[in-house]
Specification:
The chain is of the alpha/beta class. 40% of the residues lie in helices and 25% in strands. It has two domains: 236 residues, Rossmann fold (3-Layer(aba) Sandwich); 55 residues, Phenylalanyl-tRNA Synthetase, Chain B, domain 1 (2-Layer Sandwich), CATH 3.30.56. 47% of the residues are buried. The model has no long low-confidence stretch (mean pLDDT 96). Bound molecules: S-adenosylmethionine (SAM).
């Protein structure tokens, strides 16, 4: 997880002041809190871990790294329901799903705070276990090449729904899907209107496995047909999920720039470079899947991007899949670019 911790350090360097009150709510060895203190200069760090042995090691690791931090052997649930304190930044990095901890963290995050959430139950979010996704995230996933982005958007929408009764809205600053984890970095904003505005950024997606066309609809009630308009086949559906932006591109640009100066962080540099170049539109096209469906010879994603850009569209690589592209072009335009017409 070093690469992900590097990105978190770079993120905090870009957005957090030294006087922030930071809670590393699932500290384990304390490595995150310690790195945040030493590399970003944040002064007020509290670490929690439900596991006594973990809290002991976080305490002794903090001491041996000369980091002044408050370390508590306590669960998030107990801490959040007994403290009057509020935190400007909260890091939640549990094993598996973050859902059981989210509700309590909403009670102690500052109304304009920053929440960083990791999920490692990617098989669930990516649709390998559809019933588990319904149970945990109250959402239907997709189990095809779009699954990582859909899973990340399901996680995001879930956080928006948990935040909303606390009159908190969310705005994604950075979103990452890599290997076995997803991580979202959110700017919270207080007020009923902010909460409602976030909910308005959620909705549903349909996907035709035959034509590989997707469509998105915002709102709490799915407003789409069940059959593909092009081929008449039954559509696959997913959601509720986040339909809005995944990034604050100004923040991403700043972090990507900072990453270049971070020695020994090649993984973070690579990931941030792709994200920095990626256009922030929902979903993407798998070029190998398209060429297979069209029964034409393989073509590189870069070539398709080049043709789309020459035709006046925005088109880029995506962090979600090396063989895919994101574009604002319609699927028919992508097909033309693949065929070279
Ligand atoms: C994946 S580890 C954290 C790893 C760490 N953040 C890192 O970067 O190495 C998850 C930790 O969360 C702790 N944990 C799980 N549930 C918790 C809860 N409800 N409250 C506080 N800590 C919890 C576990 O004991 C475990 O040490």
């Amino acid at each position: 997880m070093k690469g992900l911790r590097d990105i978190s350090v770079l993120f905090l360097k870009s957005v957090a002041g030294k006087n922030c009150r930071l809670l590393d709510s699932t500290a384990a060895s304390g490595i995150r809190g310690i790195r945040y203190a030493k590399e970003t200069g944040i002064k007020h760090i509290t670490m929690l871990d439900i596991n006594k042995a973990a809290a002991l090691s976080a305490r002794s690791n903090s001491r041996s790294n000369k980091v002044k931090a408050e370390v508590r052997a306590e669960s998030i649930q107990r801490f959040a329901n007994t403290t009057e304190r509020r935190f400007d930044i909260i890091d939640l990095d549990p094993f598996g799903s973050p859902v059981p901890q989210l509700h309590d963290l909403m009670k102690i995050i500052d109304g304009n705070g920053i929440l960083m959430v990791t999920a490692t139950d990617t098989a669930v979010l990516c649709g390998a276990h559809e019933a588990a996704c319904l149970k945990t995230y109250h959402a239907k996933p997709l189990h095809n090449y779009l699954c990582k982005e859909v899973g990340l958007r399901i996680l995001m929408a879930h956080v928006a729904r948990v935040a909303s009764p606390f009159n908190l809205g969310i705005a994604p600053m950075l979103s990452i899907s890599d290997m076995h984890y997803m991580r979202i970095f959110l700017q919270m904003s207080s007020g009923a209107e902010s909460a409602l505005n976030s909910l308005k950024q959620t909705g549903f997606c349909t996907f035709c496995g035959n034509c590989m066309e997707f469509s998105l609809s915002k709102g709490t009630i799915p407003a789409f047909s069940h059959l593909c308009r092009t081929c008449g086949r039954q559509l696959d559906k997913a959601g509720p999920m986040w339909i809005g932006n995944l990034y604050d591109k100004k923040v991403v640009g700043k972090i990507a720039m900072l990453a270049k100066g971070m020695a020994d962080a090649p993984e973070a540099q690579r990931k941030l470079e792709v994200i920095n170049g990626e256009i922030d539109v929902p979903m993407f096209y798998s070029i190998p899947k398209l060429t297979k469906r069209l029964r034409v010879t393989a073509i590189s994603p870069s070539k398709v991007i080049e043709r789309l850009v020459a035709a006046g569209f925005a088109a880029t690589r995506t962090q979600f899949d090396n063989d895919s592209i994101k574009t604002d072009a319609a699927s028919s335009d992508v097909t033309s670019a693949v065929l070279g017409r």
